Amino acid sequence: MGDFPRIVEKLCEASKKEYANPYSAMEWPEALDPEGWFMSPELLSIYGMPEYDRLTEGEKKKLSFYETVNFFSLNIHGEKSLVEGLARQLYQKGNQELSPYLHHFLDEENKHMIYFGGFCTRYAGKIYRDRKMVFPRDYAPGEEGFLFFAKVLIFEEIVDLYNVKMSKDARLAPIARQINLSHHRDEMRHLVFGRNLVKELFQRYAAVWPPEVVQEVRRYLAGYISATWKEYYNPDVYKDAGLEDPYRLQERAFANPRAQAHRKKISEGCIRYFLENNILEEEPVL
Amino acid sequence: MKTELEIRKALRDWIVKTNGKIRPENLTDETPIIEQRIISSLQVMDLLLFLEQLTGKSVDVEKLKPGIFQNVNTLYENFFRKESYVY
Ligand SMILES: [Fe+2]
Ligand SMILES: [Fe+2]
Predict the structure, then answer these.
(1) In chain B, whose CA is at the least distance from the CA of A235?
(2) % of chain A beyond a pLDDT of 70
(3) Whole-structure pTM value
């Protein structure tokens, strides 16, 4: 396991120091300023497209509100299954050393849902639905656990770059910046944990998996990165923002070369990690 | 409004296009698309978007069960004839 137990110990210490009360951590305004930005314009899913350029300033801001609700909703869905999976891992055989940190992980993800859910329900009155589905199937030994943590890592890597950018963006409404910042502060630790654990699990199991399992794991993860991105382009958002032909727009936005370059840039560090650790052998198509 | 035949054909065309390898003559309305890995669980997300476009309605994702994605027949039954999963 190498340095991992030491890292886990340090992360636990840091989590205790950062321990937050989710009911006093945020300053929720009574209502949002309709003149405000909630997501950085450059991160909006249709940024740079003619459909975006045509919008008035007010319409762009309205879109930024619904894109934020989508971004926060994605986080809630990711965190819901994360919490489920973490709870399952807790005190499982072989996880003794991880369990103290899993308690923090669970605690922090629950708090994130309070922040994200607080924003969505207070100001939008809803959370967007999740179109991702997982079908039950059989797994090789260790495969399910490995895929679980690898998927969490991919998801958190992408989210974190958005969080960092938006926590620094002075154009955004204070509450949006605050939520992004406090999420990032916890996610820094989750990423350290994930990067160490995923690498270690892959080394441990890939050596004993038959080649077809390794190949399937690689194929799945490559597809997962792309599927994760796809949810950033949500026709429900376009509908709420009053944009025309939301489904076509979703297809065009995802296929837009600028958007593809954006996804590549944001996922760069994450993909490099997967390549360097031989978990992926080639760059996935985004 | 599309007829049943048109909808079934649209579904098969989408599956063939999304899979990229299967030949249209090898896909019937009974071919198990998930079990035979013609469509992956990750592609089901795109399928839902396609179904929403085709029905003009929203899919109620919380109600979905894996069985309804078995083949073109089950898709037609659940999303178009019975409309049990859309609102
Ligand atoms: Fe989180
Ligand atoms: Fe996290």
Answers:
(1) B49
(2) 99
(3) 0.96
